[in-house]
Amino acid sequence: MFTMIAALDDAGRRLDRLLRKALPSIPLSALHRLLRKRQVLLDGKPADASARVREGASITVLVPDNIVSPEPVPATESRQSSETRRLTQTALTPESILWQGNGLLILNKPAGIPTHGEDSLETWVRAFLVDRLSPSLSFKSGPLHRLDTPTSGVIVFSTSLEGARYFSALIREQRVCKRYIALLGAQLDKSARWEDALFRDKVAKKTLVMEAGACSDTKLPYARTAVYPLAVSEGCSLVMVEISTGKTHQIRAQAAFHGCPLLGDQKYGGSALVGGLLLHAYSLAFPAPNGEALVIKAPLPRAFYQYINVRFGTCPELP
User: Fold this and answer.
1) Which of 122, 216, 226, 231 could covalently link to 238 via disulfide, CB atoms 3.0 to 4.6 Å apart?
2) The pairing of beta strand 279-287 with beta strand 152-158
3) In the beta sheet, which residues pair with residue 287?
């Protein structure tokens, strides 16, 4: 038997869904069996799966001998694990934090760091937040969109369930404007708008553009991308790219399809470049809950800035 205390981010959730989040080591079938057998108590009384949990409620699970008991972290106890202690040695620097508020943490991601997985930006963020967030049984901070490993720039993490829901709704409603700075391996002398249906090749791990009329599947994700030249040199262009959709490898796939792959993006047909492709998530614009229009910008990485100076003579003023 063990007891957990519901926190603010757990309030209002169905009991069965909260248990799935809080106790991932117990099989789902076993959780439902415990609920059916009235072996889950909410504030000391047997509760149904659909019961709504309030902040501060006690949840007691009567675990039979044939089920391995998990070890949930009490709300009053630090959640810092040995892995987290190790990762705090690679803590986020103050310079990498662009903005905080409304349940969001906005960072300047370095190029070469994955968003998810082992030793990723996500693990750095959780290490940074371990003693800064209120305990929760069902909420964990995570990225609310993603950037490819070689891409640098603005990325948003949640620090509360409310913040995660708010920003995710903005993305679904296409109310988040993302601007990137990219180096294309072709000369682009005028602005362009790309509107394409994309499909994901899971074997090759590539995003491909479906030729017009080649497929009748109307459910394919549709990508809209606007491209604005900032500087042009022989065989390459420095551009600002604006997207309201956010499909995997959207910019890289569309640029390749339209004849101007990113310089250094060999996965999508670009020529080789020492250090790989140069793609930077420069700014993110979205409305805050109070109606304020937020525009968060991330300065260019030094290597990108230096390359622009060498290739174009100077770095143009960015909008």
Assistant:
1) 231
2) parallel
3) 293
Q: CA 129, CA 105: separation in Å to the nearest integer?
A: 10
Among candidate residues 172, 221, 169, 214, the one with its CA nearest the CA of residue 195:
221
Q: What share of the chain is helix, strand, coil (3-state, %, to 5)?
A: 25, 30, 50
**Residue ranges matching CATH 3.30.2350.10 in the chain:** 82-172, 177-312
Count Cα atoms within 13 angstroms, Cβ side, for 98.
23
pLDDT band at 218 (very low <50, low <70, confident <90, very high): low
184 φ/ψ angles, rounded to the nearest 5 degrees: -95, 145
Q: What percent of the chain has pLDDT over 90?
A: 49
pTM for the full model?
Answer: 0.77
CATH superfamily of 2-61: RNA-binding S4 domain (3.10.290.10)
State the average pLDDT over residues 185-194.
Answer: 94
